[in-house]
Design brief:
The chain has helices at 2-14, 20-48, 56-64, 68-73, 85-98, 104-133, 137-159, 171-201. By secondary structure, it is an all-alpha fold. It has one domain. Helix 2 (20-48) crosses helix 6 and helix 6 (104-133) crosses helix 8. The model is unreliable at 6-15 and 53-64 (pLDDT under 50).
Length: 202
Amino acid sequence: MHVLDLVGRSRSQNALPDSPLAVATKGALAGFAGTLVLSVVVKGAQWLQGLGGGDSEQGSEEQAGIGAGQALAGGQVQAPFLDQSTEIFVQKVATGLFGASLSGGARRTAGMAMHFLYGSFWGAVYGLIQSSLRLPPARHGLLYGLVVWLIGPATLVPAMHIMPPPQQQGVRKALMVVAFHIAYGLGLGLTFDAFTQERRQG
């Protein structure tokens, strides 16, 4: 038994660390999980605000609708809720590249795909950073969620005229968007930590 312990310890010490690609892949998967957490929190907030009723899908269709003309106009488009900002983004891309106006269904599907790809991208970046710094996962995830909010909804998204800047959103909505990204960061950080725990135990 003592010999087996020594062999196991030797293997653990000689085990190669994860490659950057493996770390980024785990981070992307954790980012997908964090995005799922964010989506659930957003839907819960919508339900609490009375946006989860039977006619909400039709109302969302009308509010999030943006045609090619609106996308090219360059004016500020108000996304009624965070999850619909990606729908407006993909319509702007479709308009800018192809001059096309997407249907509501295509816009929702492409927006959802973009939503999770974006979250997975930031997860991959997190994985590379965390594998080097090895900070406490909950605290790092929380701070990282704030950084993602600062780069995205607070800076780039208003610059693309998809949502107004935080100071123009109203205190309640601005704080909700921050809270959504904290939820994303916590989900990302704790999921990535679970992946790396498995690696360390293996």
